[in-house]
Amino acid sequence: MSTPHTPQIEEDRKLIRRLGGPSKLAKTLGYSKPGSVQRIQNWTVRGIPAAVKVAHPDIFLGSKPVAESV
Question: What is the number of alpha carbons within 13 Å of residue 19 lying toward its C-beta?
Answer without folding.
Answer: 22
